[in-house]
Amino acid sequence: MSAPFTPAATPEPDFSGLWIPLVTPFDGPAVDHAALAALARRLAAQGVRGFVVCGSTGEAAALTEDEQLAALKTVRDAVPQLPCIMGLGGENLPHVLGRLEQLNTLDLQGLLVPAPSYIRPSQDGLLRWFTRIADASRHPLVIYDIPYRTGVTLQLDTLRALAAHPRIRAIKDCSGDGAKLRALLQGGELQVLAGEDLQIFGTVAEGGVGAISASAHIQTVRFAEVIAWLRAGRLEAARERWRPLPALIEALFAHPNPACIKALLACHGELQNTLREPMTAAPPALLARLQALDAAAA
């Protein structure tokens, strides 16, 4: 069992702004590191705050642990000026803590940590899960609240108890629970990042600090401006920039993520339209619709 990590005094971490959970490009069966580096450099120049590496959009479940670490190195080498959050998922706590020991040696802004999937523990079990990981981590944690993937709901009282931990600082909200979201925004115990792309405008307008947005691989500048302008109080300008995005977002999730994002990026010449099984490519008819919506938002 790992001893709790005792950090030196550091400034409060800030997770505000637009974060991109990067797709993982493939060249045949292998990770395409050249395409990944080029994608990160392009996005870095378009107003993003930083990157999430090896989240669900990055097909992390289909990557080996060595591939995940290599992808992180590629992104950090390509854009050393921007921070990275690393995805850390799993169901076996000792294994997760073992991976964490290696991640503790790396320079990261934080870790994006979901509840264990399939197991469906009690609220007490969830409290212990996140606390054990936070105790062993030298990095701040962003809780990934996504019940439709994990099969378990983090209740408001559990999140408030976790927020008392000095290294649990933010939440990526994909809960679909508007009342819980508003309570977190009003309470201010955690920085709230929109995780459902259609909820970006409302979440940030009500006090969220930003978003972790898969859709923002496309029309990146527009997404970044919406968040920045909302946080600056420029509501009308942000609303105008937001107007074409919901239709694009809906289309980007019309086939399991990240198929549609990869299809459009392939059309832009940024990577190959390749996913790892059991993920499959977006149908041609959907791709034509995506291209039209992308052009309309340009």
Automatic annotation (TrEMBL):
The keyword Cell cycle does not apply. The keyword NAD does not apply. Transmembrane segments: none annotated. Keywords: Amino-acid biosynthesis, Cytoplasm, Diaminopimelate biosynthesis, Lyase, Lysine biosynthesis, Schiff base. It is an enzyme of class 4 (lyase). InterPro entries: Aldolase_TIM, DapA, DapA-like, Schiff_base-form_aldolases_AS. Homotetramer; dimer of dimers. HAMAP family: DapA. This is 4-hydroxy-tetrahydrodipicolinate synthase. It comes from Xenophilus arseniciresistens.
